[in-house]
Amino acid sequence: MSAVSTPGALALTVSESRTSRITGWRRIWHSLLRNRLATLGLVILVVMSVAAISAPLVAPYDPTWQERSERLVGPLSRGENTDRLYVLGTDPLGRDILSRIIYGARISLLIGFCSVAVSAPVGVLMGLLAGYSRRWIDDVIMRLADVQLAFPFILLAMAIVSVLGPSTRNLVLVLAISGWVIYARVVRGQVLRMREAEFIQAAHTIGCTQSRILFRHMLPNTMTPVIVLITFGLASMILLESSLSFLGLGVQPPTPSWGGMLNDSRDYISKAWWVSVIPGVAIMLTVLSVNFLGDWLRDMLDPREQQK
Q1: pLDDT score of 10
Q2: What is residue 3's predicted lDDT score, i.e. its pLDDT?
Q3: Domain 41-306 = CATH 1.10.3720.10
Q4: pLDDT of 101
């Protein structure tokens, strides 16, 4: 009798698990739709990401093409020689700003995501080791973090770029080095709190290895604040990339980047407002969108909010 009922019970368990996952996704989706700012941020990020991925198809013109006779053409205006419609105008070299904004989104989003993808795992691993060891490893990692926080970021970036040279890869390296500390400190605090928890003591009692305790039991319980940190870290990385490109330490011309566009427009703010305002608006909208999603994630993952 038990052999007959076992497959049915197993199928019922699988069905309940699948239903639970579907219910969880529906809860997340409804929570997102109820938050208008988070929904708006998601829409803006999706539009920017799609435009960046399909830039050769979406951009109206070549972002590096120059027409000196059509310098500083205003938004929604046509050029005198080529009769081209410039939706967002042209820059001091006659390049189409809309095309450069679309291609610049590639740089900002790519460097932002890659920097977070490098700094977050490194910081989480460092935090796990520091919080669990509580010996000289903890002292070395935390003192290294203190030195990093005490060292000015711009000087660190200038030193690395001057040695390695400005490039996308080196920019990701600079941003990753600057971003791992916050993850390490937060994860270390979570691990210190969990070290004396009953489920960790039980894992020690049954003979679990240290690696299993770290990655099977402690790591999943630290992911809630880490996920929120990743969203805000992405916004910070986009801002830092724009700042470094503005200073000439980021992506080099003729590759379009939002920070580089701001740098090129410094002398034309009073003559052609759109040259500097439009890249600034692009940076602002992207950072705001990520922050809106981060605020929603923080509220959704907060246990106190879930109990309401």
Answers
A1: 46
A2: 45
A3: yes
A4: 94
